Amino acid sequence: MPEAATPLAPSPLCRLDDIPDGQAKGINWGSGADRQEILVTRRGGAVFAYHNRCPHVGTTLDWMPDQFMSADGQHLQCATHGALFRVEDGLCLRGPCAGRGLTPVAVRIEDGAVHLDATAT
Ligand code: FES
Predict the structure, then answer these.
(1) 33-51 residue pLDDT tens
(2) Is the CB of 59 under 6 A from ligand 1?
(3) Does a structural domain hold residue 5?
(4) Ligand 1, atom 3, residue with closest C-alpha
(5) Long-range pairs for 109-113: beta carbons < 8 A, 24 or more residues apart
(6) Residue 18 has what pLDDT?
(7) Which pLDDT score is estimated for 118?
(8) Range of 92's domain?
(9) What is the CATH number of the domain that holds 108?
(10) Where does the Rieske domain lie (predicted)?
């Protein structure tokens, strides 16, 4: 009887080292109707991920590829109207969508790589 094939581990979104500490990276994940635009931001050994979609009018946040941070590096910033979002939970602190938030994406770090976390609820 042949052995069952070992399931392939899902591809990581990126390596942790692909994201400079204090910065963020945009990732296009999937294809076709399942394609998602995700941003992953790093604080030391921790990462926080969100859909790259501003809750104000739905544009992507970055003004250039991988440029998501405010000038002082403290917040995620929407390039369209300047809304500022807290890195740790995506809450809009200032701007036209104040009080609303980015949509979180569950991720985990495993062996130095950032993966979507299908086990998160
Ligand atoms: S679209 Fe982001 S603040 Fe307006």
Answers:
(1) 989 999 999 999 999 999 9
(2) yes
(3) no
(4) 81
(5) 109/16, 109/45, 109/47, 110/12, 112/15, 112/16, 112/17, 113/12, 113/13, 113/14, 113/15, 113/16
(6) 96
(7) 78
(8) 14-116
(9) 2.102.10.10
(10) 11-116
5: pLDDT strictly greater than 60: no
Task: Please report the pLDDT score of residue 13 as a whole number.
Answer: 95
Rounded distance between C-alpha atoms, residue 53 and residue 76, angstroms: 12
Report the distance separating Cα 26 and Cα 67, nearest Å: 8
What's the CA gap between 27 and 36, in Å, rounded?
8
Determine if ligand 1 sits within 6 Å of the CB of residue 57. Answer: yes
Q: State if residue 81 touches ligand 1 by the CB under 6 angstroms criterion.
A: yes
> Is position 6 within any domain?
no
Shortest-distance atom of ligand 1 to CA 78: 2
Q: State the pLDDT at residue 63.
A: 87
pLDDT over 80 at 11, yes or no: yes
- The predicted pLDDT at position 121 comes to 52
Question: Is there a contact between 83 and 94 (Cβ–Cβ < 8 Å)?
Answer: yes
